[in-house]
Amino acid sequence: MQSKVRWFLHEIDPDLRIPSRALRRYKLLDELLAQLEVHAGAVAEIARDLLEDIRSLTRRINEIEGRLTKLVRADHPRLLQVPGLGVLGAAAIIGETAGARRFKSKDAFARFNGTAPIPVWSGNKVRVRLSRGGNRRINTALHMAAVTQLRLGAEGVAYYDKLISTGKTRTEALRLLRRRISDRVFAAMRADEPAADPDATPASSTFPTDVTGLHVAA
């Protein structure tokens, strides 16, 4: 939707420059709508409709994110302390995991989410390749956390750079960073969850699992 409205706005004003992700800002949306009031024609009308839709969806997304934030902070506050992991990613991990204590170890959790590296031998060198199995929603959330750490210069940068200096490719280093974040997430979730009662019936998660698409809708 954002790509479409950008195209229509460019048709109206080729000199208009809209920063990346700026269409999530209410102030900019209001300014663009006001500017379009002086333009007539089908292109301007479609652009106005798209901007109104984006504004409505953005408001709805913000409301959902607000509710998710309260849920995550109440149940798994330590999870939000993992650098690079946002509310949507944390909610997806909680919903898909349905309790970290059902995993015997961080390695078992890594196999579940697809971050456990698979060794590949080539001559005297040992490399790892991407696991094609595992929970893709959790894997995506961990990948986004890794990318965010590198982009913001968070704690994962030093680890990533060290791997590169030892001969790892960028792809391999990113995979290993993703696994490291998986271990951090597992530890945080275990710390937030009470020890399981062996006689209790496992409860299903109250968190929605398909929340990553919220970023796209805006």
Count of individual helical segments: 9
3D shape: globular
**What is the number of strand segments?**
2
Q: Which bin fits the share of residues in helices?
A: 55-70%
The span between the termini is 8 Å
- How many domains in all? 2
Order of helices and strands: HHHHHEEHHHH
* Strand percentage: under 5%
Strand order of the largest sheet: 1-2
- Determine the mean pLDDT: 83
What are the low-pLDDT stretches, counting only 5+ consecutive residues below 50? Answer: 200-204
Radius of gyration: 22 Å
Summing up helix and strand content along with how strands pair, one would put the structural category as: mainly alpha
The main sheet comes to:
2 strands, antiparallel
Q: How does the SSE layout of this entry go?
A:
Layout: H1 2-12, H2 26-36, H3 42-75, H4 87-97, H5 106-113, E1 118-122, E2 125-129, H6 136-152, H7 156-165, H8 170-192, H9 214-217
Antiparallel strand pairs: 1-2
Helix pairs in contact: 1-3, 2-3, 3-4, 4-6, 5-8, 6-8, 7-8
Write a compact overview of the structure shown.
This protein has 218 residues and is mainly α. The chain is built from nine helices and two strands. A hairpin with a 2-residue loop joins strand 1 and strand 2.
Describe this structure in words.
- The protein is mainly alpha-helical.
- It folds into two domains: 2-66; 76-217, no CATH class.
- The chain contains nine helices and two strands, in the order H-H-H-H-H-E-E-H-H-H-H.
- A two-stranded antiparallel ribbon has the order 1-2.
- A hairpin with a 2-residue loop joins strand 1 (118-122) and strand 2.
- Helix 1 packs antiparallel against helix 3 (42-75), helix 5 (106-113) crosses helix 8 (170-192) and helix 7 (156-165) packs antiparallel against helix 8 (170-192).
- The protein is globular, with a radius of gyration of 22 Å.
